[in-house]
């Protein structure tokens, strides 16, 4: 069984690390002061790679230290190998680092192993069969929100850095019951699966850092997505947000989305001008049920659609008014694609395009009962401009209730361009 082969391999690699940890070894810098590799990382990866290649010559291996060719496509069986995850801990503390191995078969991670070498703790997961720690079954995660969560996150992400504005994640640190930086992604995910922490956030991980830990968390009912709520891919660097469903939703909805954060570059989301009304009608009436008005705005203004892999997932319109005012209307995202920052990216796109067509001010109007939108626009730099009382009643809208409020008054907000 591949599972026992992997366990035996990891235990052997663990022995090697424990033997070498007190000897002197060379340390090299990879990309920066915190990104190091030692002779031991390489030796351990080599041991693991050789044994896999010997037993399963047809398998592909994606290892952190590049001691073998990286696969071009994730087809067949692929091993994700991090010989030492948490190299800084390994060097400075001689503890709290792990060997992380995941086995992907035909695009699905089927097995995940995270071995805390010095604590001799083996976390294992098999897709659909649950997760164990040294043979004991791990129980389902408890639901947490940020306010009652004990978190694992590096302090780097609340200081100026290249991945995210520090003020996005700082409120999470403030609101949670405590934040710790453990410094080894795979182990932090394994500890989450074991209920030792309630959430894990990082802005920069590679597949060998999270592939095994992600399966561990999922097998105890948790969720692992990007910080923007997108599914995690296995083809490069990504942010990682992990925890119970409630925790993950809380972070995305109340800390990330509402701050108007720029999502990670998503090469397959394109926003382009669109000219067929019928094709986009259903989406537009989601934003404004008054179809006659939508059609009129379509004729009068410009319409843009957001495409994800060829599918239309969102749309918005710009209508020019006097005095270099451009109005953003009917911004809508397909219901099953909401909370994935597509709305934010359309708003950013709208700001750019409104500027390009000569706008000096962007106007947006919504209802008094659209609390989420009122927050969203203010956080994107809009300020209240005017109120038209009973606008919705006077324009033929039926009584609509949202968040316990009746939709009555139209609120318009503006931001300079
Ligand atoms: P490593 O120790 O194997 O390099 C540290 O917060 C965590 O992020 C560790 O799991 C570390 O893995 C990983 N990490 C450190 N630098 C990284 C980088 N440049 N890209 C991706 N992951 C990194
Ligand atoms: Ca490593």
TrEMBL record:
SUPFAM superfamilies: Acyl-CoA N-acyltransferases (Nat) (SSF55729), Carbohydrate phosphatase (SSF56655). This is inositol-phosphate phosphatase. InterPro entries: Acyl_CoA_acyltransferase, GNAT_dom, Inositol_monoP_metal-BS, Inositol_monophosphatase-like, Inositol_monophosphatase_CS. Residues 267-403 form the N-acetyltransferase domain. One of its GO terms (molecular function) is acyltransferase activity, transferring groups other than amino-acyl groups. Keywords: Hydrolase, Magnesium, Metal-binding. It catalyses: a myo-inositol phosphate + H2O = myo-inositol + phosphate. Signal peptide: none annotated. Its cofactor is Mg(2+). Mg(2+) binds at residues 64, 82, 84-85, 209. Coiled coil: none annotated. Its EC number is 3.1.3.25. One of its GO terms (biological process) is inositol metabolic process.
